[in-house]
């Protein structure tokens, strides 16, 4: 018998087109992806992927079993959601960025939910990666930007980003007068693990060749680097405007604006505690906007 868990590595390679991209999507090392694919091929005694100059692609045998692999993955995910439903009755597991969890807790949002639904409570699930709702790792996600197309939900607020610099930085340097002048300043950016994030893509477009003063794998890291005065950063206005050491030196950037959405897996939408949380969020839209947008 083969290890069913190896199928998700095959799916990731088929979806991403390379073992490196698959590793990033799965939050593992590239060598792990290669090793698990090799183990699957050995156990099944069939070649499933082949390396091309442009990356990896499935062999005819790999393509032939792909629909079945998708079906197995869907069944396993449904099983995991079912187990999570039993194990977490009465708890709404909410995943969101760490700074947003802090702002939600400080806004009274959780207390108001508890007052209306005393039999339920919210538990934060925080990580530097997207938590997979389809696998039952959390019940509900509060996210901005690109989202998994299978998830369902609604818009809550706008995710707005502007350009910030520390007061200490502005004592040493004149602020840029335009986006084009950003390339003349040291910038703060995400590291390679977030190369596909809209901020990383935008900076490559508008400030190619600029000196990068600091890199981070989290938004909180960007904020900390900006506060240190080493360079200029694009930050969510909800965070940047709340930092007294930072100055918004340019208005919000339209290319970085996305929607904050409350999301869940469609199979979870009928669950009582999830419905209750969605209803509560609907009643809190006006209160949530300053928490999420600033």
Quick description:
By secondary structure, the chain is α/β, with parallel strands linked by helices. It contains 12 helices and 12 strands.
Label this structure with key terms.
294 residues; alpha/beta; Arc Repressor Mutant, subunit A; D-Maltodextrin-Binding Protein, domain 2
CATH topology of the largest domain: D-Maltodextrin-Binding Protein, domain 2
Determine the strand fraction and express it as a percent band: 15-25%
User: CA-to-CA gap between the ends?
Assistant: 54 Å
Following the backbone from N to C, one meets helices and strands in this order, namely: HHHEEHEHHEEEEHEHEHEHEEHH
CATH superfamily of the largest domain: Periplasmic binding protein-like II
Q: What is the count of helical runs?
A: 12
Spatial arrangement of strands, main beta sheet: 4-3-5-12-6
Query: What kind of sheet is the major sheet?
Result: 5 strands, mixed
Gyration radius (Cα, Å) is 22 Å
CATH architecture group name of the largest domain: 3-Layer(aba) Sandwich
């Amino acid at each position: 018998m083969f290890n069913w868990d190896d199928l998700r590595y095959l799916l990731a390679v088929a979806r991403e087109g390379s073992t490196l991209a698959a590793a990033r999507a799965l939050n593992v090392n590239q060598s792990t992806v290669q090793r698990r694919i090799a183990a699957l091929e050995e156990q099944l005694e069939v070649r499933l992927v082949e390396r091309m100059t442009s990356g990896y692609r499935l062999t005819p045998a790999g393509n032939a079993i792909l629909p079945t692999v998708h079906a197995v993955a869907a069944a396993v995910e449904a099983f995991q959601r079912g187990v999570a439903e039993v194990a977490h009755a009465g708890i709404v597991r909410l995943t969101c960025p760490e700074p947003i969890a802090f702002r939600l807790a400080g806004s009274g949002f959780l207390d108001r939910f508890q007052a209306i639904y005393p039999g339920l409570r919210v538990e934060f699930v925080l990580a530097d990666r997207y938590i997979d709702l389809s696998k039952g790792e959390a019940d509900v996600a509060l996210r901005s930007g690109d989202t998994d197309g299978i998830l369902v939900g609604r818009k809550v607020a706008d995710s707005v980003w502007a350009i910030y610099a520390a007061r200490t930085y502005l004592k040493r340097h004149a602020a840029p007068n335009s986006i084009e002048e950003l390339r003349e300043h040291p910038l703060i950016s995400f590291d390679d693990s977030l190369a596909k994030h809209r901020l990383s893509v935008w900076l490559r477009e508008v400030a190619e060749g600029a000196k990068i003063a600091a890199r981070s794998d989290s938004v909180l890291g960007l904020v900390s680097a900006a506060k240190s005065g080493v360079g200029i950063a694009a930050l969510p206005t909800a965070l940047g405007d709340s930092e007294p050491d930072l100055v918004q030196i340019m208005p919000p950037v339209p290319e970085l604006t996305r929607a904050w959405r409350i999301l869940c897996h469609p199979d979870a939408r009928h669950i009582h505690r999830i419905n209750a949380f969605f209803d509560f969020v609907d009643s809190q839209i006006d209160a949530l906007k300053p928490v999420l947008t600033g």
